[in-house]
Amino acid sequence: MSTEVLKEILAYIDEHIYEKISLVELAEMAGYSPFYFSKLFSEIMGMPITGYIRIRKLQYALGSLLEGKKVLDVSLMYAFDSHEGFTRSFTQLFGSTPSKVKKYLASYEVPGYCIPNIEGRRTHMGLDKESLIDNMHQIVYEVLRTSFEEVNAGFCTEISITLFEDGRVKIADNGRGIPLSQNAKVNQQVLDKILSGHPILSLEYTQMGDFSQCGMQVVNSLCESLQINVYRDGYCYSQDYVRGIAQHDVTCCEMEHPSGTEIVLKPDSLIFGDAKFSVDMIKEWVAENNVSEAIVRVELKGY
């Protein structure tokens, strides 16, 4: 299947996103039998045509929810069989329920459809293991940059990096901590400005290019879970995110704890699979950034 034909198919899906889209109709457009069309589409796009259509409908549905539309109306708008089925599919894909997204996601723009580079019938998606591992480590480096800023400003003397067997990593420092207060609404606005992202799916990820200094919002979007704890002025402020979406109001409790920031994150396994963090890669990057080993401590737990 040529790039031109594939582009026509993907554009047609977006143009008819509110309708039930027929496999037979798409196959006729491409000039193949339904079986052979499905086979070619899966080879090129890395997923079945039915799965791709479902993802596009849910991406558009997410945008409609943020426009203020009701969950039931959105499920009908995008031709889902039931409200329950829509909610279940939405939650499986984005990690948050439609109602939670409406409340906590600040903004979302439906990404353009992605056309992979095609050579014959093989697709080069840029998802080789080496690139995946390097990009996954860039997530940690971006978090570390914020701690290094505190070091360079003279407010941080300790940074700990803990790698867990389940793929999580904890980065904690004894800097000043993000300036949060007793005002929960303002706290959410502050954290949203720094961290709020949106779910990034595998096809969108392959089009992102260079990951160096990608920013904390992108980091959060690429994590299936991220928890931040900010210790400041005798209080602990906490928020949990799933694929960039806040999961609740910022919590606050009194706690005797040195000031600082702690982030526990797990990269999205739907993108990075079961790739593991490397202590050697992290230590090498720290050394390249001229931060003393006396300040940064890296340890393993459960490996």
Describe this structure in a few short sentences.
The protein has 303 residues and is α+β, with helices and mostly antiparallel strands. It has helices at 3-15, 23-30, 34-45, 49-66, 71-77, 83-94, 98-104, 129-152, 184-195, 202-205, 216-221, 269-272, 279-288, and strands at 117-119, 122-124, 159-164, 169-173, 223-232, 235-242, 245-246, 251-254, 260-267, 296-301.
Which characteristics define this entry?
alpha+beta, globular, 2 domains, 303 residues, eight-stranded mixed β-sheet, Arc Repressor Mutant, subunit A
Describe the structure.
It is a single chain. With 303 residues, the chain is an alpha+beta fold. It has 2 domains: 3-124, Arc Repressor Mutant, subunit A (Orthogonal Bundle); 129-301, Histidine kinase-like ATPase, C-terminal domain (Heat Shock Protein 90), CATH 3.30.565.10. Helix content is 45%, strand content 18%. It has 13 helices and 10 strands. The chain has helices at residues 3-15, 23-30, 34-45, 49-66, 71-77, 83-94, 98-104, 129-152, 184-195, 202-205, 216-221, 269-272, 279-288; strands at 117-119, 122-124, 159-164, 169-173, 223-232, 235-242, 245-246, 251-254, 260-267, 296-301. The strands form 2 sheets. Strands 3, 4, 5, 6, 7, 8, 9 and 10 form an 8-stranded mixed beta sheet that branches. Helix 2 (23-30) packs across helix 3 (34-45). The protein is globular and about 65 Å long. Mean pLDDT is 89; it is low at 119-126.
